[in-house]
Specification:
The chain is α+β, with helices and mostly antiparallel strands. It has helices at 30-35, 91-106, 127-141, 146-151, 159-169, 212-222, 230-238, 252-284; strands at 8-10, 20-21, 24-25, 45-46, 59-61, 67-69, 79-84, 115-120, 152-155, 171-172, 174-176, 185-189, 191-195, 201-206, 239-242, 247-250. Helix 2 (91-106) packs across helix 6 (212-222). The N and C termini lie far apart (71 Å).
């Protein structure tokens, strides 16, 4: 299923889709432009693979230069996952910044309650690029120390591993030329994904700003409610995850039902205490 609204664009410095491409301003009306996808973007986008198993045997290289399997990061905790590339000048840094801000506000501890896996879609990216990106991510996340370091993983890899992960997540991208004509840029969607401890896709959040509520609920859902508080369970009951929109919305009928239930409980308690008071008064007389 494709998102109804996903920020899709070229992660190029100085380029904004919807206004200009390489300095060329669109001459068509805004509505017409918004309805037409440029030919070079037809291969990019998101197709949700909910409950799809990830390629846990795929080999990557972490920021320290160590060869790892994707499955090394899937054990007991949910995983927040993003596909970007580290030489991106525009969209990818916004995705990672929004992801870190959302996770920071979710009030969970990385490495303890969940892990983060960020994989590059560019086989030209190297571990030293991953080191710099991870440092910036941790600075924004505001969590430091051995636990945080061990819970955040920035990976690079060869094309077969990248393709396997891209296909499993439904994260499609296309290589496009940069302003200098070199084929070293990518068109892709902006999205943060969540996976279960078993390595299956759970949810997708679209855009570059991820509401704290949605990030927290996505982690709770991906953990099979193992890290949920009572408040989380109540909010989950009153909200629905909408795959086509890539976000949570209020479930009006559930909310009304919950309010009605609380009202009935309140009325029941009121009658109980009134009846008890009358019995006490009668016994005293």
């Amino acid at each position: 299923m494709r998102f109804g609204r996903v920020m899709l664009g070229l992660a190029l410095g100085g380029m904004v889709l919807g206004g200009a491409v390489y300095g060329q301003v669109f001459s068509k009306p805004l509505g017409a432009t918004a309805q037409e996808k440029p030919s070079y973007l037809k291969g990019a986008g998101i197709v949700e693979r909910l409950n799809q198993p990830l390629p846990l045997s795929a080999q990557f290289v972490d920021e320290s230069g160590k060869t790892v399997a994707l499955g090394d990061y899937f054990h007991q905790k949910p995983v927040a996952l993003a596909l970007v590339y580290f030489h991106c000048g525009m969209l990818c840094p916004q995705v990672l910044h929004g992801m870190a801000v959302g996770l920071k506000g979710a009030d969970f501890t990385v490495g303890k309650d969940y892990d983060v896996v960020v994989a590059s879609i560019d086989p030209m990216d190297k571990p030293e690029d991953a080191i710099a990106a991870k440092k910036e991510f941790l600075d924004t996340l505001g969590q430091t120390g051995p636990t945080a370091e061990a819970g955040v993983h920035f990976l690079t890899g060869e094309q077969p591993a990248i393709t396997a992960l891209s296909e499993a997540t439904g994260f499609h991208f296309v290589r496009v030329p940069g302003p200098d004509g070199k084929m070293d840029q990518f068109a892709h969607s902006s999205v943060v994904m969540f996976a279960t401890p078993e390595g299956k896709m759970s949810e997708y959040l679209a855009g570059i700003d991820y509401p704290v509520r949605d990030v927290r609920l996505a982690l709770v859902n991906a953990s099979h409610n193992k890290i949920a508080t009572f408040k989380d369970l109540v909010i989950l009951y009153c909200c629905n995850y909408v795959p086509s929109a890539g976000k949570y919305t209020v479930a009006v009928l559930r909310l009304l039902g919950f309010a009605a239930m609380l009202t009935l409980v309140g009325i029941g308690l009121m009658f109980y205490f009134l009846t008890r008071k009358r019995r006490t008064t009668g016994a005293a007389a």
